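pipeline: protein-struct stage 2 | run 1193 | GOLD domain-containing protein
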Amino acid sequence: MDFTAILLAAFAVLIVNVEGIMWKLHPNTHKCLKEELQSNVLVTGDYEVQDAPGQKVDYIVKDSKGHILSQKDDISKGKFSFVTENYDTFEICFISRVPPQQRGIAQEVSLVTKRGVEAKNYEGLGEARKLKPLELELKRLEDLSDAIVQDFSQMRKREEEMRDTNESTNSRVLYFSIFSMCCLLGLATWQVLYLRRFFKAKKLIE
């Protein structure tokens, strides 16, 4: 395996990601999962909620501005998908609803999320375009390469923003230090002149 293949595999681990989680959702509570995502990223999720008579669970996916990307009430098992428009923090919330007269139980919720290249359905794409297995794999590698390039671009952009912020901060600190030194020198000069006049008034010095 050459260096290019190793580099491609390393970035595939960073960009192509599958996450699975399972937890207990207690009655009349909610659980939210948050994550920062880049723009134009496809995200898919498979969820399953343990059945409990009389209890209902809803889910909602929204961004930091409160825009709803996906939502469904009274879920049991299903899927959702959305594409991010901007770099933002997104959250997936599961909400338990139990009638007041009923004593609820904790329900087990499982969630598997995929994003990036892994979230795409290449099998369906191959069938729709009648692609051969090799062509399908080349298409997947092409998408992975594009994702790596976009990730590099985002990293470069964030590095430039951080560098600009550091340079701006350094400039402000420098100007503030110069201003502080000028104030201290001016205060020291005024203090010396004041004390000199005071001592002359008291005829302690000539």
